């Protein structure tokens, strides 16, 4: 097998570029990790070599181009998610727009004239994110609406007199409201419908209405045009989620991304009719951001795939070709996963990605790792993963399932794990184990499981509900007990998470049944647990109490902590440390 440490180092050193954003002068900003964490880079207007514009140890979270040139970006401190906003002029150093290290500033949108930004902030109360507007030149800021719970500000009205406020009390419920800046009453833009999503609004310049993504009376997100308070006029409704939407500068075309079994598909549509006007060819992978050039002749997007990290590409509506702006080609010797389906305990076919190492299987079959995504309302995607590619190279198969509750396969599928049905998704992991064990090239006695965040809870639930199945478990910052999670998670998250998992008071009995810590005496397999110490989502106590309990019972457990990481390992040196630890752990307990 390939030297795992050497391969991992090569893959971790392969640079990624993501989240592109054009400015009005034609310069293209994006985030790049050349120095170990994502920082702002710029391709100058008219072309030329990309240049770094920021240099921090902590990763930049986003960048947005300004109409007059330059950009706004945000970053937190050591992963604590208390994002602060900065103005980056066309030349020179960035200056802070906010300086409140205990406050979360959620990015919103830039005003049509480029003079103001809209953002959310929980300065009034940590549990509530109010709507704010700031003048960029002076830094003068004012709250334009006090709001209960977490919200977003995805757009401005085209006349610049109001901002759009998006609510999302539940995963599959969101509404849009118009908030005047003069203090007038807010109005609901989306007809009252408690069981639908209304997302990604893009106003027509005349203010008559807006394009948006919605799933009102539908199983999938589609593209529609909506007049305020009216019914959606559906323009494009494939049997798959339309996930991204951006209108061209002249508003004649709409760029959309469709999720086809996890793979992104970029298309250009006629803005009036929804007819497909172009479908540029691009590598198979995942797109997370679209941005139009100010002249409307091209669109920049990022794209990552199984064998290549995220890069920035350009597409033109009048061409079927795409061009790499800043991208690393597919890496030699790396795997594409096969799309498969396996049967569940109740007869459903569950989608997954699957790969086995190259060559002939060893006697007894390949050991396999099952990797579980977080969320739960998320989807495992055909994305770049240095760790999973390294596992394959060292002789481990990898199965990446999208068990019930995953998005991307329709609302009905995503709702199959809600509340009292939560353990049905854990049973799906047992079904994955059964499917793997039945394959002659797989060693059914050497199947491990790994996940992060909610996927970490899935790992802990799997090794307590089905302890006889798993040879090893890897839990990155997973929830061990729901009671302690709700007591310590960021207060701005409690309401939304309670709507998904269950109310910590009214559903206390259910949540105790769903808490792996209460059944940790069942765990038989060795465990590796890793945790960022500034994590505001799943606080360190979740990992600490599980690791301590396993130690007290004599279960082999390794517990790794990272003082300068939050909910995820964003710095290259920290990823190197944790992935090498996982490699050594899996080599010992799966390969033996």
From TrEMBL:
Superkingdom classification of source: Bacteria
GO terms of biological process kind: proteolysis
Residues in Peptidase S9 prolyl oligopeptidase catalytic domain copies: 386-591
Keyword RNA-binding among UniProt keywords: no
InterPro entries in the record: 6-blade_b-propeller_TolB-like (IPR011042), AB_hydrolase_fold (IPR029058), Pept_S9_AS (IPR002471), Peptidase_S9_cat (IPR001375), Peptidase_S9A (IPR002470), WD40 (IPR011659)
GO terms assigned for molecular function: serine-type endopeptidase activity
Keywords: Acetylation, Hydrolase, Protease, Serine protease
SUPFAM superfamilies referenced in this protein's UniProt entry, alphabetically: alpha/beta-Hydrolases (SSF53474), DPP6 N-terminal domain-like (SSF82171)
Function: This enzyme catalyzes the hydrolysis of the N-terminal peptide bond of an N-acetylated peptide to generate an N-acetylated amino acid and a peptide with a free N-terminus. It preferentially cleaves off Ac-Ala, Ac-Met and Ac-Ser. Also, involved in the degradation of oxidized and glycated proteins.
Protein name, per record: Acyl-peptide hydrolase
Organism: Teichococcus coralli
């Amino acid at each position: 097998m390939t030297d795992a440490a050497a391969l991992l180092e090569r893959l971790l050193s392969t640079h990624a570029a993501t989240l592109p954003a054009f400015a009005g002068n034609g310069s293209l900003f994006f985030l790049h990790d050349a120095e170990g964490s994502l920082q702002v880079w710029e391709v100058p207007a008219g072309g030329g070599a990309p240049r770094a514009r920021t240099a921090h140890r902590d990763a930049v979270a986003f960048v947005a181009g300004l109409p007059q040139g330059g950009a706004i970006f945000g970053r937190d401190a050591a992963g604590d998610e208390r994002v602060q906003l900065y103005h980056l002029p066309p030349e020179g150093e960035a200056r802070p727009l906010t300086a409140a290290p205990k406050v979360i500033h959620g990015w919103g949108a830039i005003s049509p004239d480029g003079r103001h930004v809209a953002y959310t902030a929980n300065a009034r109360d940590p549990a509530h994110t109010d709507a704010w507007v700031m003048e960029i030149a002076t830094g003068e800021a004012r709250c334009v609406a006090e709001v209960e719970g977490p919200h977003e500000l995805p757009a401005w009205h085209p006349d610049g007199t109001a901002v759009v406020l998006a609510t999302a009390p539940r995963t599959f419920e969101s509404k849009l409201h118009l908030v005047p800046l003069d203090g007038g009453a807010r109005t609901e833009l989306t007809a009252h419908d408690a069981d639908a999503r209304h997302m990604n609004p893009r106003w027509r310049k005349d203010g008559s209405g807006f394009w948006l993504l919605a799933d009102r009376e539908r199983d999938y997100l589609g593209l529609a045009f909506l007049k305020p308070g009216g019914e959606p006029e559906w323009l494009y409704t494939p049997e798959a989620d339309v996930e991204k939407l951006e209108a061209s500068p002249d508003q004649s075309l709409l760029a959309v991304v469709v999720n086809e079994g996890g793979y992104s598909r970029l298309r250009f549509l006629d803005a009036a009719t929804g007819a497909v006007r172009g479908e540029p060819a691009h590598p198979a992978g995942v797109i997370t951001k679209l941005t139009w050039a100010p002249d409307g002749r091209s669109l920049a997007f990022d794209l990552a795939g199984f064998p290549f990290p995220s890069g920035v590409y350009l597409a033109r509506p009048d061409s079927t070709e795409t061009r790499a702006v800043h991208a690393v080609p597919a890496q030699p010797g790396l795997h594409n996963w096969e799309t498969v389906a396996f049967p569940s305990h109740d007869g459903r076919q569950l989608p997954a990605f699957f790969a086995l190492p190259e060559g002939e299987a060893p006697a007894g079959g390949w050991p396999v790792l099952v990797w579980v995504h977080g969320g739960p309302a998320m989807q495992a995607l055909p994305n770049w993963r240095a760790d999973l590619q390294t596992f394959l190279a060292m002789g481990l198969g990898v199965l990446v399932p999208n068990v019930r509750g995953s998005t991307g396969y329709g609302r009905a599928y995503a709702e199959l794990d809600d509340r009292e049905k939560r353990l049905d998704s854990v049973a799906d992991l047992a079904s994955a184990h059964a499917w793997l064990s039945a394959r002659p090239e797989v060693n059914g006695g050497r199947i491990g499981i790994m996940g992060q965040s909610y996927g970490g809870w899935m790992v802990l639930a799997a090794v307590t509900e089905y302890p006889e199945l798993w040879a090893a478990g890897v839990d990155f910052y997973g929830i061990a007990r729901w009671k302690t999670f709700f007591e310590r998670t960021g207060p701005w998250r409690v309401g939304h998470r309670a709507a998904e998992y269950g109310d910590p008071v009214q559903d206390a009995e259910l949540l105790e049944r769903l808490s792996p810590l209460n059944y940790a005496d069942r765990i038989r397999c060795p465990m590796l647990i890793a945790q960022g110490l500034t994590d505001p989502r799943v606080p360190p106590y979740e990992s600490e109490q599980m690791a301590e309990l396993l130690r007290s019972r004599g279960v082999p457990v390794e517990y790794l902590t990272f003082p300068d990481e939050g909910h995820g390992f964003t710095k290259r040196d920290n990823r190197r440390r944790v992935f090498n630890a996982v490699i050594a752990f899996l080599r010992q307990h799966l390969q033996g």
